[in-house]
């Protein structure tokens, strides 16, 4: 029973650690997305104006605006790609393995307990069918000792 409670405790701790790692990665992704948004809002406004004015001297205003917009989209895609690469798989693999081992151990203990319960049930059934037959093997030894003692006297 002690192993069972220990394994349940291990499973709960493992699940909590996995959830904490998932939240940490989600927090990191959210932070990166927020930082990307702030950087895009502040830096790109100034960069866009500077690029537009620089390009409009050699190109038409429409072509200058299109080039600035394409560069903005490429930068946004790069930042989203960096945020999406954050995963928890390799960080939680060891914890998940410990959790799985604890689950397997609990399953093995439960199988043993079920087998013991079945054996006890069968013993009770056999005792109910033949009470003297079930008690006879246990009584043979003491009866034999008493007979041998009586014969010695």
Question: Would you write up a description of this structure?
Answer:
The protein is mainly alpha-helical and 153 residues long. It has one domain (2-152). Helices cover 93% and strands 0% of the residues. It has helices at 2-56, 61-84, 89-129, 131-152. α1 runs antiparallel to α2 (61-84), α1 (2-56) packs antiparallel against α3 (89-129) and α3 crosses α4. It is rod-shaped.
Low-confidence stretches: none
What would the average pLDDT be, to the nearest integer? 82
How many H/I helices? 4
Biggest pleated sheet: none
- Beta-strand content bin: under 5%
- Envelope shape: rod-shaped
Considering DSSP H and I runs of 4 or more, what fraction of the residues is helical? over 70%
What's the helix-strand series?
HHHH
**Which structural class fits the helix and strand makeup?**
mainly alpha
Using only C-alpha atoms, the radius of gyration works out to: 38 Å
Number of self-contained structural domains: 1
Strand segment tally: 0
State the gist of this model:
The protein has 153 residues and is mainly alpha-helical.
List the helices and strands and how they pair.
Blueprint: H1 2-56, H2 61-84, H3 89-129, H4 131-152
Features:
153 residues; mainly alpha
């Amino acid at each position: 029973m002690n192993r069972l409670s220990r394994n349940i405790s291990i499973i709960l701790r493992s699940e909590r650690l996995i959830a904490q790692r998932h939240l940490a990665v989600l927090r990191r992704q959210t932070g990166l997305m927020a930082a990307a948004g702030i950087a895009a809002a502040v830096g790109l406004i100034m960069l866009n104006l500077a690029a537009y004015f620089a390009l409009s001297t050699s190109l038409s205003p429409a072509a200058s605006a299109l080039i600035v917009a394409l560069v903005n989209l490429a930068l946004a895609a790069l930042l989203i790609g960096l945020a999406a690469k954050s995963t928890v798989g390799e960080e939680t693999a060891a914890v998940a393995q410990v959790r799985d081992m604890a689950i397997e151990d609990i399953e093995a203990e439960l199988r043993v307990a079920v087998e013991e319960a079945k054996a006890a049930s069968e013993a009770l059934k056999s005792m109910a069918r033949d009470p003297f037959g079930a008690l006879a093997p246990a009584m043979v030894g003491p009866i034999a000792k008493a007979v041998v003692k009586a014969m010695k006297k």
